[in-house]
Amino acid sequence: MDFKVINTDGKARRCSIGTKRGSIDTPAFMPVGTNGTVKAMSPDEMKDIGAEILLGNTYHLYLRPGTDVISKLGGLHKFMNWEKPILTDSGGFQVFSLSTLRKIEEKGVQFRSHIDGSPHFIGPKEAMKIQGLLGSDIAMTFDECIPYPSTYEYAVKSVELTTTWAKRCRELQNEGQALFGIVQGGMFKDLRHKSAEEILGIGFDGYAIGGVSVGETKEEMHEIIDYSAPLLPSGRPRYLMGIGDLGDMLRAVDAGFDMFDCVMPTRNARNGTLFTSAGRISIKREEFKYDDRPLDPDCSCYACRNFSRGYLRHLFLSREILSMRLNTYHNLCFYLDFFRKMRTAIEEGGFNQFKDRWQPVFDKSYPDNGS
Amino acid sequence: MDFKVINTDGKARRCSIGTKRGSIDTPAFMPVGTNGTVKAMSPDEMKDIGAEILLGNTYHLYLRPGTDVISKLGGLHKFMNWEKPILTDSGGFQVFSLSTLRKIEEKGVQFRSHIDGSPHFIGPKEAMKIQGLLGSDIAMTFDECIPYPSTYEYAVKSVELTTTWAKRCRELQNEGQALFGIVQGGMFKDLRHKSAEEILGIGFDGYAIGGVSVGETKEEMHEIIDYSAPLLPSGRPRYLMGIGDLGDMLRAVDAGFDMFDCVMPTRNARNGTLFTSAGRISIKREEFKYDDRPLDPDCSCYACRNFSRGYLRHLFLSREILSMRLNTYHNLCFYLDFFRKMRTAIEEGGFNQFKDRWQPVFDKSYPDNGS
């Protein structure tokens, strides 16, 4: 994996990550394809709207259809017909957030499937094996994502475990697959510092901050973001996991982060919440009933070029599949386009003005983490 | 509306219907866009796969979003971004099959919405007004579709009412909109004959057979199809309403019918039942788990060119939106392609061989009217 810092503007960075399946311009937003598909989108559409990398969820794919199926059908890229880079998470986050009856051991986690209750075990060894069979371009270390709030004592132990697991993952890194280490530590700055030191000590192709947006206040989140970014080396990609609020990402880019993933644009789309250059819109509102204007007059996506707000409202109220399609298409376009503009702003040394232009829009219109 | 018989082969006809929004080659299959969208498809995709005409449901669109909304947003074509011809049904069938608490009067039907129970009234006058505001290219007369079985006495009265309503619709025919009359009569041949005489006597741009596939046996259905086709004039389009089983349509084309509509390819797709040149497939079956072959090796649609049966099975079991999209795309492609082949066979005088080739496949593999 090749990494180049092309430009900086303040702490914001314009970088490029090279992989054998294509390069990724950063700051980059990675749409989430949980079950081997970005919900409601076709891979052709993902390419059309300019996605350069997708995220696949190890936990979900391991449970269904199963690693053996994807492996026998040629790996995740071929399975889902996506030729560009894929990053897989390690399954850690989902094991802790979705499964039931977890038991954490030195070697990993015993848990029951959220689909059928069947018993499973995933630790660093299993996570690396699964990600190897999926054949992603970037794998993540298996980590413990602690709940919010957690006691300091619990967080100390968890950081230790995460370091142990990270070492094991590094030893088992798959040939031809980049591996990113994950820094944990909850809301405790000294533990974030300790975790970063230990993870950096092991040495990875890139570094991520995990365990953010787990229920803490926006203020706590922003503090951890600002505190964590400089802990990570400037010569490697910095990935802030699971943060997808546009205002938060803008702050995180300003702090020096490069990569992001979140279900927010896709999940919100299916719930009828749409992102526009004038703010957030709930398409089901009565005011759009007879509205013949495009959703976002400043957007040139397929949905905005071809349909009225009145039609989009009708599709949503009728629970039509095309509603989820057009809403998702638009929201992802808006996100990817926003990142494109952000990259240009950094290239041109205008990131501060860009931030001043957009931060108030998002802080006003996007008050929470979506529905 | 312009109608030309280009070729005949036995009783099968290869015709062309000209409208101001484009011509329709027949035999034609009309995909159903109930709520102003063919479920799971975009209008661009409908164009790509070669659909020349869509069917819109007056009853559904009248209830939601409401005729006023579609009218204010520029009519149904503009509303759903479909420039080619649209045929609207009259709402009659749905008033009788979906609504509750119906009361049939001389002037129309009082009923309650299946969505929210609100009271409504649709008769010939209302049906013509709604279809005029929707702006479809072909409208249908408001008719009574009687249940199966019905008594002879009830069917006699219903045919009378349908004729009265048809006359009223003809008087109120909208400028620039073709109007088709509908022949009813249940399973009684003499009543079918009487209804045809009366409807033909009024004089319409085209003629339809309604009240078929309402619960009768296949034998009864085939008898009515064979009996009814020659009752309709050869100089006008003949439309067999609501029949979408491939074997049944093959028989009906053989009897001289030109136009068809049915939710079968789209509804079956969403239920995982897929049509292929080797017969019907249930994509959820265990046997496809590791199957890396395309769904139908003889099909060149987007789904068959890009994805394996194993992937389609996974999407279906995961209830992913892309499953409904790819399945629908394929089934509609298969249907439209089948009609293309049927038209070529008639043009080349090879319809009998075509029928011999395909009838056994459908009779074996498609034993019922779908799920």
From TrEMBL, chains A, B:
It comes from the Bacteria. It comes from Candidatus Sulfobium mesophilum. This is Queuine tRNA-ribosyltransferase. Its cofactor is Zn(2+). Keywords: Glycosyltransferase, Metal-binding, Queuosine biosynthesis, Transferase, tRNA processing, Zinc. Binds 1 zinc ion per subunit. Its EC number is 2.4.2.29. Homodimer. Within each dimer, one monomer is responsible for RNA recognition and catalysis, while the other monomer binds to the replacement base PreQ1. Pfam families: TGT.
